Amino acid sequence: MFTGIVEELGRLEHRSGPRVRFAAELVLSDGAVGDSIAVNGVCLTVVDRGSRWWEADVSDETMSRTTLGRLSPGDPVNLERAARLDQRIGGHLVQGHVDGVGRVVAPAPDLRVEVPAALMGYCVEKGSVTVDGVSLTCFAIDDARRCFDVAVIPHTAAVTTLGRLAPGAPVNIEVDVVAKYIERLVTAYRRHEDS
Predict the structure, then answer these.
(1) In the CATH scheme, what is the code of domain 8-81?
(2) Of 145, 143, 100, which Cα lies nearest the Cα of 124?
(3) Alpha-carbon gap, residue 169 to 165, rounded angstroms
(4) Each residue of 43-80: pLDDT tens digit?
(5) Which CATH number among 2.60.40.1120, 2.40.30.20, 2.60.120.10, 3.40.190.10 corresponds to the domain 100-184?
(6) pLDDT by residue (tens digit) across 12-36?
């Protein structure tokens, strides 16, 4: 579980088959093999590490369903360690399980993102969404164009990849997990009532 508050801007060093190496420092300060680190919102497991790098094995499924497969060596990435329950949660509850890949329509500070139609039902005015691992608040929901806006403050633009995204750039989207659970429960309840 994560919070969507990016701790460090790392970078992809290289990829060899399923093994991916990232350059980082802060997220390794108390980290060990087996720990979870979110990379652009994707939960990965540390399988090897050094003082300024760590590696993860990334499945073909994850590569194809997220933007990780599109990264090139040197590309910056948003990094966050798994949340600790004895600390404040500054963003919202984030699983690190990407629901789909969106596309930047307009850059920060008024970042507009187009998402797959299936995700629009989870996007609500003043609701939480994660864009490349960053916890943000939706507004200007446009169902017809399948997009929403998020305001990116200068600090967030500077310390994450969001300030560098140009129109057309793909981004990982994770919608609010609570909304997904509610939908599942309501759907099951309605089926039961209809039978």
Answers:
(1) 2.40.30.20
(2) 143
(3) 6
(4) 999 999 999 999 999 999 999 999 999 999 999 999 99
(5) 2.40.30.20
(6) 999 999 999 999 999 999 989 999 9
